[in-house]
């Protein structure tokens, strides 16, 4: 729903691809525009993601605040007010559970959470790899 206000947005989906492939796809900024509406282009200032890497797009800059290969990818706005966290878990050797959580650090409401169709779009794209 457009303009729905929530304090914490959580989306979860199972993707029929190994966790390493899902992690690589979602941390590669060249793919972001394919599954997140409103971000037509994204760049990162390092060759591979790591704590401190800066992802930049039309909506702002996000700094990698937590990174555990194939497990956690967390970004925080450069002003420290917003966090988005991806948590990855292997269901088995060929499937991944992906949990997406976003929130404002001060607990204020999110004005435009991403559409609930984003995980389905991601699932479709990654399963085609």
Written as H for each helix and E for each strand, in order along the chain, the element string is: EHHEEEEEEH
CATH class: Alpha Beta
> Roughly what fraction of the amino acids lie in strands?
35-45%
- Low-confidence segments, ≥5 residues, pLDDT <50? none
- How are strands sequenced across the largest beta sheet? 1-7-6-5-4-3-2
> Roughly what percent helix?
10-25%
* CATH architecture type: 2-Layer Sandwich
Give the total of domains: 1
Biggest β-sheet description: 7 strands, antiparallel
- In CATH, the topology is named Alpha-D-Glucose-1,6-Bisphosphate, Chain A, domain 4
Let me know the average pLDDT. Answer: 90
Overall SS class: alpha+beta
The end-to-end distance, rounded to whole angstroms, is 30 Å
Spatial shape: globular
Number of helices: 3
CATH H-tier superfamily: START domain
Radius of gyration: 14 Å
Kindly state the number of beta strands: 7
């Amino acid at each position: 729903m457009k303009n729905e206000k929530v304090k914490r947005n959580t989306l979860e989906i199972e993707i029929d691809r190994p966790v390493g492939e899902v992690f690589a796809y979602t941390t590669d900024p060249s793919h972001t525009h394919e599954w997140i509406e409103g971000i037509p282009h994204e760049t990162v200032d390092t060759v591979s993601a790591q704590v401190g890497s800066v992802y930049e797009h039309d909506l702002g800059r996000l700094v990698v605040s937590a990174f555990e290969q194939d497990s956690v990818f967390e970004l925080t706005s450069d002003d420290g007010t917003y966090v988005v966290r991806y948590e990855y878990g292997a269901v088995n050797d060929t499937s991944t559970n992906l949990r997406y959580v976003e929130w404002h650090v001060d607990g204020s409401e999110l004005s435009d959470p991403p559409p609930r169709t984003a995980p389905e779009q991601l699932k479709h794209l990654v399963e085609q790899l």
